[in-house]
Structure prediction request, 822 residues.
Amino acid sequence: MPPALELRNVTKTYGAFTAVDDLSLTVPHGCICGFLGPNGAGKTTTLRMILEIIRPTQGTISILGSPSALAIRNRIGYLPEEKGLYKKMKAWSVIAYFATLKGLSRRMARERAFQLLERYGLKDFAEARTEALSKGMGQKVQVLAAIAHDPEFVILDEPFSGLDPVNQTVMEDIITDLRQRGRTVIFSTHVMAHAERLCDRLAIIARGRKLFDGTPEEARRSLPCRVRLQSADSIVRLQGLPEVASMISAGEGRWDIELTDGANPQAVLEACFTAGIRLSSFQFTEPTLHDVFVKQVGSDAKEATFR
Amino acid sequence: MKIALLIAWREYAENARTKGFWFSLFLFPAILVLSIQVPILLEKKGTPTRHFVLVDASGSFEPLIVQAIADQDTRRADEALREFARGKNVPEPLSRFVKTNRELDLAGWKKDAGAAYLQVPGFKPPNPKFKRIPLPSGVPAKGSLDTVAQDLRPWLRDDRKLPVDGVDRELFAAVLVPDDLEQLARSSAASAESVAGSKPAGIQYWSGNLADTALLDLVESTINAELRRREYVARGLDPAAIRTIEKSRAPVTSLNPKKASGTEQVGMSDRIRQWLPSLFVYLLWVAIFAISQMLLTSVIEEKSNRIIEVLLSSVTPGELMIGKLLGIAAVGLTMLSAWIFAFVGIVLWKAAGISPAEAASAGGMAQVPGDLAGIIRTTWLIPAFALYFLLGYLQYAGLILALGSTCNTLKEAQNFMGVIVLFLMVPLFTLTYIPRDPNGPLATLLSWIPLYTPFVMMNRVTADPPLRDVIGTLVLLIAFTSLVLWGSGRIFRAGILRTGQPPRLLELLKWLRNR
Prediction:
């Protein structure tokens, strides 16, 4: 069985500007893949190419085993980055309309629309015109429109942007529901917390190039562990330990100690006791995806803002 | 195709739900009905009785004017009674004088009922249009006309009201006839020059209302007729003979050499035939103009809302374009058929209320529905209308789609829309010129410009244009429309996803060349 999505050496150029540069990516069936990157990294361009709204300059894309997304468009759902709805249409009829475009019968589409609106707490707004909905509600309606035909593959471009914390949770529920039913989801974001909670796999891209691709665990392991401790005593003796890669003073007796790969922070603590270093605090933190992201794209992100 | 139909259906349903659509659907029939009914209603209820004073220094015209006004009242009352008798629930004994064709035998009724012939239950005679009232107390009729006019000023200026039967009324006008009117008329006829000097001479007509000249016309014609009668008598001519002579007319018949012998006579039907296409051109124009706007709004909405991106992940640009074209065309067709049905319905309804006697006097208005049906049956009017609507619409829709897909906001698009509208104005200006010379150089020239072909050829359709023009312009129009649709398809595909600045002309050409 081929992977749900496979990008091979995909490049997209606009004149002299390269939006996506030699990108290869594989997403297996039934997983949630986060697509991380700073603004202007080429996330939206990549997603549009996957959907065949635009064509890559070079490279091939295969989605659900088909070289053309349009040929199997009824099996794909898409939420674009910029959200918009037909202002004068009612919430349920927008959802039903997009579902009929994806091959559902009118009756089925209507049923599905009401079902979804009820499940995600929008039942009372089913008959409201979309222009009367708040931004968050509108966005939820749009996501529901994208998944109303129960697609096997769902592409969500920045699904969390502009949502309040409550609605962000609803959005997370929608995505986990999709996973439970064995659907493949790929979503882009630059909020690491969502990726951390939801993703089975993630890909980090910046300036059109892929910087990382793997599970969140692998991503975290790509960064060394850190220990932060505070002590009035000198801790120079710790420098000799094989577990310690570097030590940076943070002032006032605080130190950030970076450990070598696979090192056990317990060894540092024991070394402190044996050396008689009196600790006022000892903190061990696993690297977060945020750290990974900053580390991977730090310089790129800054440059990107100036571009 | 199923997808295109889904898009078309949404487009139709959305536009058909707007207030603007319903407004335009009913506006045309409403205007038509109002333009027919309002003058009738005004005639029936409208103007209240106007009160005037009359001072005749000569003393000889006064009874004539009073008589003329009484005659007018009688005529209007008679007409109202005729109309009343045509309706339902005509009471006895009046109903006995209504003939089978619902005409009232007025003379018979008058003879039977005598002076009280207007006193019929349920019938209200119309208000008299003008009523002569005596001079206000305190204004002597004996003085010179200038003094009388001076004395009457407060009433004429509406500073004071006149009590008539216990109710205060405005003084509408004062008619002052000098005692030397006959000499004045005679000398003016002899010198053929105006006697008007610094001082008003002749009849003085004082009124603050400059628009309603009905009273002045009545007074003038009455006095003139009397003056002429006296003059005939003075010169030993028989006034009755003169009246007979004045009635003689040279008979005139308009003939059309293009028609078969025996049917050359130009009648109402031929006039309708000449002018009916103009109405259809106008409908065509309004419909194309209105739905072009709808199309533009709809494209821009999807583009500026970025709904287009979701759509394009579900449908191809081709399907989207065809769906839009079909949906909006259906809106236009609904509007047009509603208008045409309303038009035919109103014509039939109005024509049904016209009696044969009136029809004869109105120049055969009663045959209008029959004539219309005949024209519609025997000419290409309706098929041509359908064909030209379709092609004209597709042509302009193509331009609008291309335009809409390259603009981000409605405001941006409206600037360009101005240019299209400017082009569209030309057939409206020529609307009335073309029927006068439907196969002349202007009509022929405009017919060969594809943008104008639908309108101008529609305008000429009942004038038997040369076959060369019909076929040639049609082929050109179809070719041009295909070209526009092909080009706009390409521009639409490239432009619809684009954001930011509208493309330059050079860029557009590039889009046309490659995908």
Notes: The first strand of chain B starts at residue 50 and ends at 56. The interface with chain A takes residues 3, 6-7, 10, 14, 17-18, 301, 304-307, 309-316, 497 of chain B (CB under 8 Å). Chain B has two domains: 2-29+267-514, 49-239.
